[in-house]
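To assess whether ligand presence alters the predicted conformation, the chain was also submitted together with iron/sulfur cluster. Input:
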Amino acid sequence: MFSEELEKISWEETTEAIYSKTESDVLRALGKSHCDVNDFMALVSPAAEKYLESMARLSRKYTEERFGKTVSMFIPLYLTNSCTNSCVYCGFHISNPMARTILTPEEIENEYKAIKKLAPFENLLIVTGENPAKAGVPYLAKALDLAKPYFSNLKIEVMPLKTEEYAELTKHGMNGVICFQETYNKARYNVYHPRGMKSKFEWRVNGFDRMGQAGVHSIGMGVLIGLEDWRTDVTMMAYHLRYLQKHYWKTKYSVNFPRMRPAENEGFQPNVIMSDKELAQVTFAMRIFDHDVDISYSTREPAYIRDHMASLGVTTMSAESKTEPGGYYTYPQALEQFHISDDRTAEEVEYALKAAGREPVWKDWDASFDFVK
Ligand code: SF4
């Protein structure tokens, strides 16, 4: 399990190693066709900042070699804002006295129909808060069953499950699982996740092993930028990615680094802010480190960044997302989990991507491929 590997990697020593990288370390990494985690550290280090142009060129080259000009489009659907956890940065946390919604099967189907009217989306991401008693595996299985006539690629972003539960959901058409570790800093993890199942660091970090053991086709990973030093967190994710690729080599991987924005009210304020330039740096570094991994940007990022980065490393994007449960049809005015920055319609995003020379792809996977050996 990855938690055992992580015990051998010191957060403090990794941070020190990153910040002591020199320009020659960066140049060495840029000259390699296969980078290791040590090279990745050089590429995300402050020493690499002045090589952003070269990194962008290399990132674009590797991306086009592997993915052509395609950008895979997906849409998230929040089924519930009911949650038993207390993440200090999230409006859905258990102590927030807000109205909670768990969509009924009929409401879920209405959402699917409403999404299909927006654009020819085939890649659906089903999202829930963590409430296993009320929105657990049987509920998710039902949502997947209902989705099959409408979408060909179904992923979930829900609480970490047991191996057999992941296996069970694949029988209901689930092709992929996304889970954010949020931060790999174990010593600080409970500052942000004080109660509930999400407070159990090992259970969460080993969830990726359980996905791999269950034979999940696609695994998505992510760290929430704004909690701990982002350079160290993405490096830990790079270690984790390599570990998973070695152990579960048939699986396809994606990464995500959503940036938390400063709250306008009294909400949680991020401890660190990642600039636009730094977001570009980590994206290029990830592509140079791993030519095959999907790099995903959500609508948390503003339109101008998404359009620009779509030709420089990003391969998957959401569009016209609503982050409130039932936001497409049932409850368009409910409380959002977080505010999106890119509020263009899917059609507008498609137009902008095409204008930038990209090819938005609505369907890049068909569940029937599962049966092709
Ligand atoms: S981040 Fe997820 S698990 Fe945490 S409180 Fe929000 S919905 Fe619940």
